[in-house]
Amino acid sequence: MQFKDRTATLEGFSGIFRENQLFFKWYGGFYRNALKTFDYFFVQNENSKKLLQSIGFQNVKISGDTRFDRVAKILNQDNSIENIEKFKNNALTIVIGSSWPKDENNLIDFINSNPFKVKFIIAPHNIKEEQIINLKNQITKKVVLFSEMSNSELSLQDYDVLIVNTIGILTKIYSYADIAYIGGGFGTSGLHNILEPATFGIPVLIGPNFEKFSEAIALVSLGGCISVKSKNELEEYLAFLIQNEDERLEKGHIASTFVKMNEGATTTILNYLNAVE
Q1: CA nearest to 192, candidates 165, 162, 171
Q2: What are the CA-CA distances from residue 250 to residues 84, 104, 130, 151, 268 (Å)?
Q3: Alpha-carbon distance 230 to 151, whole Å?
Q4: Of 164, 162, 170, 116, nearest to 139 (Cα)?
Q5: Do 157 and 86 contact (CB within 8 A), yes or no?
Q6: Are 203 and 177 in contact (CB under 8 A)?
Q7: Strand, helix or coil for residue 211
Q8: How much is the pTM?
């Protein structure tokens, strides 16, 4: 939930509330008092609105999530990266975004032994040199680091795996993906952003722990995102999607449509703010 201070007025933007939060407990009076400092709440869904109304707050409007507006704009920017274009070389490419060691442990065997003509781009969440080297050493395919790609003597199209050891370009990298796996769902640190790959119209795979992320719950239920519970299940779905273009296109279409259908939160909020000025 984001907060904006406007001449002693507070609005809560893109809020999402759950029944198990302290605001809604019998002993949560102190926390409910904190909510009284807000003049208006813009929430993501009907359930959040009903929860606030149940404790006496009627100054609530469903606006949706402003993140959808942000990621939708990604399509209008220049997402090209010349060296990654050379690396991809028109091959089917799986992008592994914001991965943790638990995610990578479930993927290494598939990367090393799959029989398909497919390339992998791995963008770890942690890019410390020690972890990057450890990841590279586990991969038996031909690996190049992003920091090495400027070497003109390398034939980038001959490499099978790219490890991204820099930050700030993952959003652009998703534009080269045919399938995306998003990290965090096999751990407790939290699932990373699934909307960025979804906006490019590609199927998304995640781990089993996503119950706190409303966008993941919705996209899984729609079929644009696949939640896997184990290493074997992850390998099976990857193989299935690699071999079935129609499934990739259908799930990717669901993902991009999901983002488009949820745009508009920013406009709703700005319209309200302009009206009260």
Answers
A1: 171
A2: 25, 26, 39, 38, 30
A3: 38
A4: 162
A5: yes
A6: no
A7: coil
A8: 0.78
Burial call 255-267: b when 16+ CB within 10 Å, e when fewer:
bbebbeebbbbbe
On whether the CB atoms of residues 111 and 236 are closer than 8 A, the answer is: no
pLDDT tens string for the chain (277 positions)? 443 433 334 445 567 788 888 888 888 888 888 888 888 787 777 788 888 889 888 888 776 677 778 888 899 999 999 999 999 999 999 999 999 999 999 999 999 999 999 999 999 999 999 999 999 999 999 999 999 999 999 999 999 999 999 999 999 999 999 999 999 999 887 999 999 999 999 999 999 999 988 889 999 999 999 999 999 999 999 999 999 999 999 999 999 998 888 776 555 555 655 665 5
Q: Are 161 and 139 in contact (CB under 8 A)?
A: yes
Place of tokens 């449509």: 257
Name residue, tokens 């071999």.
Answer: 243
